[in-house]
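Input sequence (140 aa), recorded before submission:
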Amino acid sequence: MKSPGRSLKEALLCAQSEDRLTIGVYESAKIMTDDPDSVSFCVLAMDEEFECDIALQIHFTLIQSFCFDNDISIVRVSDMQRLAEIVGDKAEQLEDAHCVLITNPAEGSWEDPALEKLHLFCEESRRLNDWVPEISLPER
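Predicted structure, C-alpha coordinate format:
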Protein backbone atom coordinates (compact mmCIF):
# COMPACT_ATOMS: atom_id res chain seq x y z
CA MET A 1 0.00 0.00 0.00
CA LYS A 2 1.45 3.33 -1.04
CA SER A 3 0.30 5.57 1.78
CA PRO A 4 -1.62 4.02 4.65
CA GLY A 5 -1.30 7.33 6.53
CA ARG A 6 -3.15 9.21 3.81
CA SER A 7 -5.84 6.50 3.66
CA LEU A 8 -6.24 6.65 7.43
CA LYS A 9 -6.67 10.42 7.34
CA GLU A 10 -9.26 10.12 4.54
CA ALA A 11 -11.16 7.38 6.38
CA LEU A 12 -11.20 9.42 9.61
CA LEU A 13 -12.45 12.55 7.84
CA CYS A 14 -15.11 10.59 5.95
CA ALA A 15 -16.31 8.88 9.14
CA GLN A 16 -16.31 12.21 10.96
CA SER A 17 -18.46 13.82 8.26
CA GLU A 18 -20.94 10.93 8.59
CA ASP A 19 -20.89 11.00 12.42
CA ARG A 20 -19.32 7.53 12.63
CA LEU A 21 -16.39 8.35 14.95
CA THR A 22 -16.09 7.51 18.61
CA ILE A 23 -13.25 9.32 20.37
CA GLY A 24 -11.89 8.32 23.75
CA VAL A 25 -10.84 5.14 25.55
CA TYR A 26 -13.93 4.85 27.75
CA GLU A 27 -16.37 5.86 25.01
CA SER A 28 -14.79 3.31 22.68
CA ALA A 29 -14.95 0.57 25.30
CA LYS A 30 -18.64 1.31 25.81
CA ILE A 31 -19.39 1.02 22.07
CA MET A 32 -17.37 -2.20 21.84
CA THR A 33 -19.29 -3.68 24.76
CA ASP A 34 -22.75 -2.51 23.70
CA ASP A 35 -22.53 -3.16 19.95
CA PRO A 36 -19.25 -4.78 18.82
CA ASP A 37 -20.67 -5.58 15.37
CA SER A 38 -21.01 -1.87 14.64
CA VAL A 39 -17.24 -1.27 14.94
CA SER A 40 -15.27 -1.37 11.71
CA PHE A 41 -11.84 0.04 12.58
CA CYS A 42 -9.81 1.02 15.65
CA VAL A 43 -6.95 3.51 15.95
CA LEU A 44 -4.77 3.57 19.06
CA ALA A 45 -2.58 6.62 19.59
CA MET A 46 0.41 6.78 21.86
CA ASP A 47 3.05 9.41 22.26
CA GLU A 48 6.08 9.74 24.51
CA GLU A 49 4.20 11.64 27.18
CA PHE A 50 1.96 8.64 27.92
CA GLU A 51 4.38 5.72 27.36
CA CYS A 52 4.70 5.15 31.11
CA ASP A 53 0.95 5.35 31.79
CA ILE A 54 0.29 1.81 33.02
CA ALA A 55 -3.49 2.24 33.14
CA LEU A 56 -3.53 3.35 29.51
CA GLN A 57 -1.31 0.40 28.51
CA ILE A 58 -3.77 -1.99 30.20
CA HIS A 59 -6.68 -0.37 28.36
CA PHE A 60 -4.78 -0.70 25.08
CA THR A 61 -4.11 -4.40 25.74
CA LEU A 62 -7.79 -5.03 26.45
CA ILE A 63 -8.91 -3.06 23.39
CA GLN A 64 -6.42 -4.92 21.17
CA SER A 65 -7.64 -8.25 22.50
CA PHE A 66 -11.24 -7.27 21.91
CA CYS A 67 -10.44 -6.18 18.34
CA PHE A 68 -8.65 -9.46 17.60
CA ASP A 69 -11.55 -11.49 19.01
CA ASN A 70 -14.13 -9.55 16.98
CA ASP A 71 -12.22 -9.23 13.67
CA ILE A 72 -11.87 -5.47 13.97
CA SER A 73 -8.91 -4.00 12.08
CA ILE A 74 -6.59 -2.05 14.36
CA VAL A 75 -3.58 0.22 13.87
CA ARG A 76 -1.35 2.40 16.03
CA VAL A 77 -0.24 5.94 15.41
CA SER A 78 2.60 7.54 17.31
CA ASP A 79 1.42 11.14 17.03
CA MET A 80 -1.65 11.55 19.22
CA GLN A 81 -1.57 15.32 18.75
CA ARG A 82 -1.84 14.96 14.97
CA LEU A 83 -4.66 12.43 15.33
CA ALA A 84 -6.47 14.84 17.66
CA GLU A 85 -6.04 17.64 15.11
CA ILE A 86 -7.71 15.49 12.46
CA VAL A 87 -10.65 14.19 14.51
CA GLY A 88 -11.10 16.59 17.40
CA ASP A 89 -13.59 19.40 17.47
CA LYS A 90 -13.96 19.76 21.22
CA ALA A 91 -11.33 20.37 23.87
CA GLU A 92 -12.10 17.13 25.75
CA GLN A 93 -11.71 15.10 22.55
CA LEU A 94 -8.26 16.52 22.04
CA GLU A 95 -7.24 15.28 25.49
CA ASP A 96 -8.56 11.74 25.02
CA ALA A 97 -7.75 10.86 21.43
CA HIS A 98 -5.85 7.76 22.55
CA CYS A 99 -8.51 5.55 20.99
CA VAL A 100 -10.67 6.34 17.97
CA LEU A 101 -13.26 3.97 16.54
CA ILE A 102 -14.83 4.09 13.11
CA THR A 103 -18.24 2.46 13.05
CA ASN A 104 -19.78 0.78 10.04
CA PRO A 105 -21.62 2.95 7.52
CA ALA A 106 -25.40 2.80 7.44
CA GLU A 107 -26.78 -0.19 5.59
CA GLY A 108 -27.18 0.49 1.92
CA SER A 109 -24.67 3.35 1.84
CA TRP A 110 -21.41 3.29 -0.10
CA GLU A 111 -18.37 1.71 1.47
CA ASP A 112 -15.50 4.08 2.12
CA PRO A 113 -12.66 3.23 -0.33
CA ALA A 114 -10.01 4.56 2.07
CA LEU A 115 -11.33 2.31 4.83
CA GLU A 116 -11.30 -0.67 2.47
CA LYS A 117 -7.63 0.06 1.68
CA LEU A 118 -6.88 0.15 5.41
CA HIS A 119 -8.59 -3.20 5.98
CA LEU A 120 -6.45 -4.71 3.21
CA PHE A 121 -3.33 -3.10 4.71
CA CYS A 122 -4.15 -4.62 8.13
CA GLU A 123 -4.87 -8.02 6.58
CA GLU A 124 -1.51 -7.97 4.80
CA SER A 125 0.26 -6.85 7.98
CA ARG A 126 -1.29 -9.74 9.94
CA ARG A 127 0.01 -12.15 7.29
CA LEU A 128 3.46 -10.78 8.10
CA ASN A 129 2.81 -11.25 11.85
CA ASP A 130 2.47 -7.51 12.45
CA TRP A 131 -0.77 -7.61 14.42
CA VAL A 132 -1.01 -3.91 15.24
CA PRO A 133 0.83 -2.06 12.46
CA GLU A 134 1.98 1.47 13.09
CA ILE A 135 0.94 4.17 10.62
CA SER A 136 2.40 7.65 10.29
CA LEU A 137 -0.24 10.30 9.71
CA PRO A 138 0.55 12.84 6.99
CA GLU A 139 1.31 16.40 7.90
CA ARG A 140 -1.21 19.11 7.17
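Checked by second reader. The chain has a mean pLDDT of 89.
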